[in-house]
Amino acid sequence: MNRLYNFCAGPAALPEAVLLQAQNEFLDWQQKGLSVMEMSHRSGEFVGIAEAAEADLRDIMGISDDYAVLFLQGGASQQFSAVPLNLLNGKSRANYVNTGQWSKKAIKEAGRYCDVNVVASSEDDNFSSIPAFDSWNIDKDAAYLHFTPNETIGGVEFFWTPEVSMPVVADMSSTILSRPIEVDKFGVIYAGAQKNIGPSGLTIVIVRKDLLGNASDMTPSMLNYQVHADAGSMSNTPPAYGWYMAGLVFKWIKQIGGLTAIAEMNQRKASKLYEFIDTNDFYANPVEPVSRSSMNVPFMLADDALDKLFLKQSEEAGLLNLKGHRSVGGMRASIYNAVSEAAVDALVAFMADFAKQNG
Ligand SMILES: *Cc1c(COP(=O)(O)O)cnc(C)c1O
């Protein structure tokens, strides 16, 4: 076995301890004679797994009983429609912040259901910054405010939460569980699992209970938060194996000290990489320093003709998936929770060496 350092943006690296535990109990979960993948989602065994995962997530993130936690299929992208369908509640307008490619997708999909008020956009700035809050043009009568706390493609992250007089909705796909957050500041938090939570196919939605029950009549039942909340996410077959894997990841997070410890690790990893990029003329990161993502670090080489060689040699050095998103170019290192500091050290050492050879 030869596990390499994986910097993929998603599906992303998982903690080795979690993969090993899943491997150990893959064929025969806790002497029950079957795999979790083969269990009825209504069995006592699986319901136990599911409830423990939810309890651990609530514990890690500090989610109060005022919120429902849903374990759904459909990806974060499906939430781009579920959010307006559940939250418009008779209103025809919603506020959206445009800070990158994922914001844009959410805005486009919401536009099918309502009038989107783009309160602020950094598109003119090539999505390399976050517009100052006091410049936002918020429609106070709109149903909610949606933003993307971490833009996975552009590598731009909010280290603050907008405080407004309406529900705040956040696509936390690539930042959830990377550091503590104040859940009470949000109406809805959603995240595809494949960055910091577990395998793809699972989507977590954390929704304040007073926002349930307002879905429009034409909302498909499977997109209706109330339907899933009432059924404990088992109105239909949930993404059972992903739910189990997420539960193992939550236990792993608790074991290593929770989100405070995780945040410290992530901070160290990101600082190392950004500091190296900033002090080496061969590399550049375009994002304003205060908004640099601690999860996704895009970087450009001094000469993009060298991109192919960089990718070839980094892969040969055991550093996988460093190619930047096609809309941005260059490179991107995603350094989620399960990417170790040793992986970042290996990347920095490779980058230093590559710059010396080619600079
Ligand atoms: C990955 C990602 C998505 C898309 O998730 P899917 O599960 O593939 O739909 C949406 N938003 C953000 C911020 C992401 O990082």
What this model shows, in words?
34% of the residues lie in helices and 16% in strands. By secondary structure, it is an alpha/beta fold. The chain has two domains: 30-255, Type I PLP-dependent aspartate aminotransferase-like (Major domain) (Aspartate Aminotransferase, domain 2, 3-Layer(aba) Sandwich); 258-358, Aspartate Aminotransferase, domain 1 (Alpha-Beta Complex), CATH 3.90.1150. The strands form four sheets. It has a seven-stranded mixed β-sheet with strand order 2-10-9-8-5-3-4. A hairpin with a 4-residue loop joins strand 6 and strand 7 (156-157). Pyridoxal-5'-phosphate is lined by residues 10, 75-77, 102, 148, 152, 171, 173-174, 192, 195.
Strand-helix topology:
Elements: E1 5-6, H1 16-24, H2 44-61, E2 67-72, H3 75-87, E3 93-98, H4 101-110, E4 115-121, E5 145-147, E6 150-151, E7 156-157, E8 168-171, E9 188-192, E10 203-208, H5 225-230, H6 240-255, H7 258-279, E11 283-284, E12 296-301, H8 307-316, E13 319-320, E14 331-334, H9 341-358
Parallel strand pairs: 1-13, 3-4, 3-5, 5-8, 8-9
Antiparallel strand pairs: 2-10, 6-7, 9-10, 11-12, 12-14
Bound molecules: pyridoxal-5'-phosphate.
Pyridoxal-5'-phosphate (PLP) binds next to helix 3.
